[in-house]
Amino acid sequence: MTVTIYHNPQCGTSRNTLALIRNAGIEPQVVEYLTAPPDRATLTALIARAGLSVRDALREKGTPYAELGLGDPTLTDDQLIDAMLAHPILINRPFVETPLGVRLCRPSEQVLDILPSAQRGPFAKEDGEVVIDDKGQRVR
């Protein structure tokens, strides 16, 4: 069983998602996509399998989105993908791929829908928000 997270260690949501994967007893393949970005085929497949549009997978905050004029509605998906490949910080994160599917895990709890193993114990996000109780059950 392979679980892959496209991870940015500087991102709290990405760190929380990675911790939830590990709380299920899974050691994922961690791809630090800022230094090892996916190729075009992989990125396109992740976006499609997650059920997103290319624009939905594009990160605006803390990126060169505005400077590159990526808000222009006439830009094609191929042009947006080109920008994401040239500037990986534009790829929203974290994407997680498991045998059960692909999700853009924002919020981090989205990963729970595709993990093949149950949570093994309580879990709270870095900000203290409890996500998994002491019985390993999701808190809604």
Automatic annotation (TrEMBL):
Keywords: Arsenical resistance, Oxidoreductase. One of its GO terms (molecular function) is arsenate reductase (glutaredoxin) activity. It catalyses: [glutaredoxin]-dithiol + arsenate + glutathione + H(+) = glutathionyl-S-S-[glutaredoxin] + arsenite + H2O. InterPro entries: Arsenate_reductase, Arsenate_reductase-like, Thioredoxin-like_sf. One of its GO terms (biological process) is response to arsenic-containing substance. Belongs to the ArsC family. This is Arsenate reductase. It comes from Caballeronia telluris.
